[in-house]
Amino acid sequence: TMKRIGLTGGIASGKSTASAILRGWGACIIDADAIAHGLMEPQAPLYEAYRAHFGEGVILPDGQLNRRRIGQIAFADPAEKRWLDETAHPVIRRAIEQELERAEAAGEPAVILDIPLLFETGWQAHVDESWLIDVPEPLQLARLQSRNGYSREEATRRIAAQMPLSEKRRLADVIIDNSGTEQELMERLHVLWQKQPHQAAGSNSRKEETHI
Ligand code: ATP
Questions:
Q1: Which residues bind ATP (predicted)?
Q2: What's the CATH number where 11 sits?
Q3: Which of 6, 3, 1 lies closest to 117, judged by CA?
Q4: Binding region for ATP
Q5: Given the CA of residue 116, which atom of ligand 1 is nearest to it?
Q6: Which of 28, 81, 128, 181 could make a disulfide contact with 74, Cβ separation 3.0–4.6 Å?
Q7: pLDDT tens per residue across span 78-92
Q8: Are 51 and 58 a contacting pair, CB within 8 Å?
């Protein structure tokens, strides 16, 4: 049976960087954020649910959902936040489950579920192993500020709104330190990746064949 690995971390800890590295080695990656965004595209289930609940004020002139506006509404009103969570989470969960089933049916030996809210959403119970991309808080703050152009205050506020990293460290099965260079992250991931069940399905081998 397929091994399910949950890849997580705090904001700006390096999850996307890590999953891009793993993808480069042919890992089967399921990107929870991408799935969630897809469900918010026009005509998709969450788009329609949000439009019905919040009204036309959350639709941008180009027809896309104004996710920033919805974020502001949820941030300002705990009841709206609860409605959003209760509406979105089951829909996203089902979509992720479908992707996992597809990977399993395709014979993938292992799958990496890239999911920022692994612990917060209860997904930990549905993976075999959880991997935490970990950075010391001051470095997290610096990387978040430089990537998003946030002020120190804004970056601090975003980090404070999340589950503390100390708590995530306690919950994770494997802690992957990303306080060094990207090269060092790659080396650490490589050691770990070598220990995982490989081959079989691999789009990798097929890709190589087409180059011969
Ligand atoms: P989010 O949860 O906000 O989507 P993330 O966990 O996916 O973030 P990344 O976007 O991968 O984090 O990394 C955050 C920032 O830090 C990016 O600008 C990235 O280029 C940078 N970064 C990641 N790892 C390193 C590293 N080892 N050295 C230097 N910069 C890094």
A1: 12-17
A2: 3.40.50.300
A3: 6
A4: 12-17
A5: 2
A6: 81
A7: 999 999 999 999 999
A8: yes
